[in-house]
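Blackboard transcription, Thursday session:
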Amino acid sequence: MRLERRTHASPVALVVAPVAAVLATLLVSALLVRWAGAPVGRTYAAMLEGGFGSVFAWTETLTRAVPLILTGLAATVAFKARLFNIGAEGQLYGGAMAAVAVGGVQGGAELWGPVWLVFALMLAAAALAGAVLLLGPAWMKARLGVDEVVTTLLMNFIVLLGVSALLDGPMKDPTALGWPQSVPLAGELELSRPVQGARLHTGLFIAAALALALWQVFRRSVLGFDIRATGANARAAAFAGVPALRTAMVVAAISGALAGLAGAIEVAGRTGYVTMDMSPGYGYSGIVIAMLAGLHPLGVLGASVFVAGVLVGADTMSRVVGVPTYIADVIVATSLIAVLVATLLTQYRVRWARSTR
Amino acid sequence: MVPSVLRLQHITKRFGDLVANDDISLELSRGEVLALLGENGAGKSTLVSILFGHYEADEGHIEVFGRPLPPGQPRAALDAGIGMVHQHFTLADNLSVLDNVMLGTEPWWRPWSARATARAHLLATAQRFGLPVQPEALVGSLSVGERQRVEILKALVRGARILILDEPTAVLTPQESEDLFTTLGQMVAEGLSIIFISHKLAEVLRVSDRIAVLRAGRLVAQAPAHEVTQAQLALWMVGHAIELPERAPAARVGEPVCQLERVSAGSGRGRLSEVSLELRAGEIVAIAGVSGNGQAMLAELLCGMAQPASGQLRFLGSSMSGEVATLVGQGLARIPEDRHAVGVVGDLPLWENAVSERLRSPAFSRRALGLRWVRRGAAVAHAQRIVDDFDVRGGGLATPARALSGGNMQKLILGRALRSPDGKPARLIVAHQPTWGLDVGAVAYVQQQLIDARDAGAAVLVISDDLDEVLTLGDRVAVMHHGQLTAARPGADWSRESLGLAMAGAA
Amino acid sequence: MGDILDIVASLPFWVAVLRIATPLVFGTLGVLLCERAGVLNLGIEGIMVAGAFCGWLAVYAGWGLWAGVAVAAFTGAAFGLLHAGLTVGLALSQHVSGLGITMLATALSYYGYRVGFPKVSTPPTITPFAEMSHLGIPVLSQQTPLTLLALALVPLLAWGLNRTPAGLAVRMVGENPQAAEGQGVSVAVTRTVAIVVGSALMGVAGSFLTLAAFNAFFFNMVNGRGWVCVALVVFASWRPGKALLGAVLFGVFDALQLRLQQAGSGALPYQVYLMLPYALSIVALVVVARRATYPQALMKPYRKGER
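(Written on the board underneath:)
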């Protein structure tokens, strides 16, 4: 069996591929549902209902989607330049901590400046924290050739330990009855919730706006060209005059900043303070989102809603049908692999070895 | 009647829409040296790759020593007694000569490697054919000529009776080529049969018994070597008379555009040592030399990709430093050696590649909100002008650049370098192996473009390992060897012999 | 400082070091084998989880301990086969395929655990490997047989890579696949075998956690050890002997920080000590990177017969 590159992508394949991927995923997870002894139809129906079946379900899904959009964008911009940022999880927590450092207030104290100023500085601090955490590994790769996959992964552990130490110590909320959580964010800084009775917050609009902005930057700016060219062929890009080190650092700054903002917006929109478990792996999910989206910022919006819907739906379904919530992770992981295979098959034709006369 | 050791029948191979080999039938007799001649892209390498099992033919079959050859498996070819010396050596730099030679010669399930026996066998074979090697040396530390010896020994050690050599002299000095021909003679004396691929007419006439000419995938002619002339071969290769570029002597040689004074750069093999050179407007300087003697470093310096470690490098009077975009804007035109890997970003569309070097100039971008934004309209229009003026075929402006054929890609790169948005002609053209891998028509086109640019007042530097090209193009010629450059003397002052001697360092 | 010297001089410290190092040795050797063949395998973190779970499950179901290790190896091999199919067969991005497999293997294991044991508050236990007290050698007697296996594997793998025809084939496909193909060695088969065997080792690494170090399976058990192995391979310059050294060094720092915590050197929060091994891994990578001789074909997909 071998692969032969197609001269032009067949339009049939472009439609069939993602559909086939989805079907393959549903098939695999159906097997797992059967293994748990639950009825497949009812399980899927419950998941669909839980994720998308009502206005409330939609608000939950969209709330869950916000950090995914941001970490998805972070992964997209990095992977597009072939900077494999696996450290979004740590950058997210770093951003969250920076946000409460700027905007946190002890038990009802006064905010130290006008709301708009503190809010802006809070987001800036979060972006900066995330960016700084990635700039180190990115510089080590650009200058010393150290593989960024490993360094960003190891940074996750270091950052999370650091956050844990801060939550036990200087940033701890003394009024929180012994649970390690941070000083809460000032109430005025929290993002407003437009829908009565739902957790959906305006962070969604910030995330969507950033997706649109990134899309335009990729498409029409020289920086976008620099990123795409460097990711496709670094040597040719350098020859064309694309500044290699500067581009790498800008990419790292943007990617880290987006992940940092994910943390800040989660705090400002959903939780109000930082805890060790505020992120169930959003940083890693962001990578899946980016791949599902084909490294396209608009695709990230769609993929985030999909993954969020699966996660929220699985929570609801689990309470009703009893299948463990981990089915959601299986579905997401399987769909990633399925989509990759399907995309490949749109670009390549499979040729089976033939015997000659 | 001399027995036939190899028979190819009706071999056809397609890559997508391209028919690389079209119904080719060929025979090789024992002890014969058969030359496969054809210009780049004629299908020679494809044919022997099929023979060796790297590719599988779509139609046709092969018989070796009377037995059918299973297709698509190098192992089958090796077992049948076929050995191949690839054009781009298939050697692992981080492993030793012995490791490279031993690979695949022992059964995989054996728990120990019989290295001592293998080493002895390697040395004996090396002795027999006059190809000295050091078994424990790391391939990465060897010179090009030494690497080729290892590549040849890989085949001989396995007892190859049919040896395929794919463009073996492309990387050798004239003297090293002579040594190779001597070795070929020895192999024939030992009973081997040889297929020798080349596009160099003189060589082919010298070395082979019979010549087969391929053109556009078809076998167009076969004849004994002593019955044909170079002119006949050229006609068969190309199919029609080709307008060879005419170079009138340089009319008006003007001011120096670029100066190197005792420039040193790089380290190890491929470094430059105290190179001095002056490039003047309206003149072509051609640098001859076998690849790997510092040409790449020189090209990098002159393309704005590196800085000298010592010495002076000046462009238009001031030091040649700063960003590529600025240099290009001042009139630097660059044609890189590797069009696929460096010249274009294959995944990006034609139009983006056509303006890639000039994106940062006000002609194609404007500042807003802290970023530069591409002026798509202007960029696309400029790209279209290049495609039209330089006859770049192979798809619309939105097709990915990798879909272009070698010739069209080179025309795109040429157009990109020579055409500026404000219409000003290029001041300095740096062309590194500009016609490598192109068919005769494209070669003539590119060479003519360089001559025309010279007549329009540009200073042109051509780095080439093709002696004919150097002598065709160079108003002045210099030779590069071990990082040092001879003085650039008028082309008429050099002969092939003196050039060959200088290339080997014995000027 | 005196604390540290006291700790390092005691035998129980080195017992702990070897115990911590063992899964790292298996895992690093597994990654090493894959990378020498030219393929990055980021599935190790997930494969270790799967190996831990499946090995433990087999023993819980009544099979013997060594059977459990075999099951873990088999599980690893199965995921390795998937990774090989994606990266060798389909030439997909090795980074993404590996990360996808880590997610899939982890998710499947956690799912399986929850399906099998829905309402447990404390993880069900098994009887793990016993110490080899009959050996009579100081630090080794307190280890389990798996540690001996790990130590034996190091010279075995070194021999295999450097002195056998199969090992030469593996090294060659990692350096120049075209050269291997030209000598009649199938790149696809060689890489697949290397990945499958390497992943089996990763599965065994996971099983050590549930069958020797601890006696039950719980969430977040692997806790980044897989990623540390990926770092250690670079530190080891892709050589088995140095891989052992790296694993032991990591074990030293990990055991040290635990004991420093216990000794109550209360100046620094405990998290700082936990950070040490990871931070030092990064430092080691930087130091080694300057001189790293990568297998030249690492991470470059190879498609036979492509123009």
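Lecturer's comment: Chain A has a mean pLDDT of 88.
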